[in-house]
Amino acid sequence: MADETSDAVAGVDELMQRIAHEYEALPRQLKSVATYIEQNRASVMMDRTSDIAASCSVHPSAVVRFAQRFGFSGFSDLQAVFRQAYAGQGASATSYQQRIRQLIEAKDGSASPDLGGAVAREFIGACRNGLDELEAGLDDAQFDAAVKMLEHADNIYVIGVRRSFAVASYIVYALQHTRKRVHLVSGFGGMYHEQIRSVKKGDVVIAISFAPYGKETQYCLRVAQQHQAKTLVITDSQLSPLARHADAQLYVKEGSAFAFRSLTSTFCLCQALFVALAYRLELNVEESTDPGEYDD
User: Fold this and answer.
1) Tally of CB atoms within 10 A around 110
2) Which part of the chain is the SIS domain (predicted)?
3) pLDDT single digits (tens) 56-90
4) Is-contact 182 175, C-beta < 8 A?
């Protein structure tokens, strides 16, 4: 049974790789469908064609054409690939808002203060699901490639804007416990251009970005590639404009509840990167901290 599940997941991964490979050549409407499927893997098996079309602002026939573009007779055949891989997982991934609505309705239709614990538990559950998906989908080869790049980097530049800024700041803090020269491209004063222009061959740029993908992050990544620096992208989709030309890509699908996405899985991935690098550098992390610090 485990082998069957593994084969089914591999079937989804293979399909998504084909979609990513052909994405740039797709018409605009089919690109919208591709993006929807990439971002809703666990629920697409249950979605109606009309619902997907409405979410993508396209005619339902475009959803069918998308399936046919990739060798399926219709959209239901494409859904079957996801159903085999994700059967039993979709309900929990898609029902957070429905469940909290039920909790509110049970409280006479108002979000009363004593609902806070239920909200917290729903969000914790979303974070847990995100971590489970991170573990299941982690590409060991790409992770190892990322660690090797960091090991051999002369300088490490890290860029992340808006919701990704907290993660970028954390990984800079963690990496500064090594002897690597680490730079946060903060953009303070609007100086992204100035902070990234000294990047060069032998350096590594870590770019962290999720849909709708920060323009500043995309700019810094282009500069890094023009200057022949190595690039590590942490993002949420193979269709991300950052991922296609990066030297290493790590994908994170965060859990979400009530229209809020957590950062739990991304922080976990970045901590794992640092710990793996520390082991590779034979770094004693405990000895690298200041004895006067109260936390790590």
Assistant:
1) 9
2) 146-283
3) 899 999 999 999 998 898 888 888 888 776 654 44
4) yes
Q: At what angle do helices 28-39 and 60-69 cross, to 10 degrees?
A: 80
Q: Which residues pair with 232 in a beta bridge?
A: 206, 248
- The CA distance from 203 to 231, in Å, is 9
Q: What are phi and psi of 182, to 5 degrees?
A: -120, 135
DSSP string computed for 41-62: TTTTTT--HHHHHHHHTS-HHH
- Distance between CA 266 and CA 165 in Å, rounded? 12
- Which tokens is 116 given? 């806070």
Six token digits for residue 251: 């994908």
> Strand, helix or coil at 156?
strand
Q: From residue 127, how far is each of 102, 133, 268 by CA, in Å?
A: 20, 10, 11
The whole-angstrom separation of Cα 95 and Cα 89 is 11
What are the pLDDT digits (tens) for 237-260? 777 778 777 889 898 877 665 556
Question: In whole angstroms, what is the distance from residue 202 CA to residue 55 CA?
Answer: 43
pTM check: above 0.85: no
Closest Cα to residue 252, out of 260, 244, 205, 243? 243
Give dist(CA 132, CA 153) in Å, integer.
31
- Give the integer Cα–Cα distance in Å for 57 and 28: 11
In terms of Cα–Cα distance, which of 57, 58, 36 is closest to 47?
Answer: 36
